[in-house]
Prior knowledge:
There is one protein chain. This protein is of the alpha/beta class. The protein has helices at residues 21-41, 44-47, 63-71, 93-98, 164-188, 211-215, 217-226, 232-236, 247-255, 277-299, 305-318, and strands at residues 50-56, 80-87, 107-112, 125-131, 189-201, 260-271, 328-338. The longest helix has 25 residues, at 164-188.
Amino acid sequence: MEYTVAMNGGDGPDSYTRNSKIQENSFDVTKSLLIGCIRDHLDIQKSCKVFRMADLGCSVGPNTFSCFHTQFPGFISLPEFQVFFNDTFSNDFNTLFNALPIDRLYMAVGVPGSFYGQLFPKESMNLIHSSFSCHWISQVPKEVLTKDSRAWNKGRISYVRSSIEVKQAFAAQFMSDFKAFIGARSAELAPGGLIFISIPCRSNESVLSILEPIDILGDAFTDMVKEGLVAEELLDSFNLPLYIPTPSEVIKLVSGDKHLNILKVEESFLKVKMSSAEDIMYGSSHLRAAMEGIINKHFGPDILMDDLFHRYCNKFTEFSARFKNFDKVGIVSVAIERVIM
């Protein structure tokens, strides 16, 4: 089943606009590397008359705007800057463009569509940026949802506490998707251009994977199944299209494209707090802003969303001992140039 992932639109209490501080903080920890790579590897004023940039997986803001304000403080008017904001067709582009900064230094364009395929003409883009987006895979592996498969993931919503076969299926899907992502970007990047990607990662046992606290949502679903509030077959056929790679997996896939060269790789860490009731509510609101659309699409409009996330908070408190030794989430950032052949 192919998923069309979109964060909650609008600017209401459950919107992504008001619940994306975690993603903003993740950008903040990678910002210095991005600025340094732009300074050291892009000759902006000599490259062309129109400097074209893209943000892939932009959602509805405001983080995507912060990104481009950070990159171009105080540049002269030439070349002209054009920014392409990309996300899925179901993304709330109205909210995105209504929130465009008045003092922006660029002209804005919306580009709906999957970033696992080519979005722009060949050799047309000077800077391609994607932050906290590529861990969303294009679809849940079919074998995970097939009853007679060794990888059937019955009763679980991710691979976190599942069999090795389930994890391998998700890993294979990520490898296929990310290879397609890199291939498309390789075709789109102009000579002398730069790709900058940041992805949540899990490098060792002391670093938390962002999927681990998310997986507890499955326990809340299980209780709702037991109480007859959710059909068991609906839970058995639901998995989140998420995979958290290791840095080595990302590097291997980028290195496999002969047209690209890795300039820099950096693993950074986002501080997290998961001890107090306030921390748990904060995390729950961010999770709801990201997951509500997928959940509604699969379980239907009758799913009791307030009840589900209330249960999630309670389950998180119950299982909080699992996370007591974790205080950071890993992020891998890769700066890539196109090889002139």
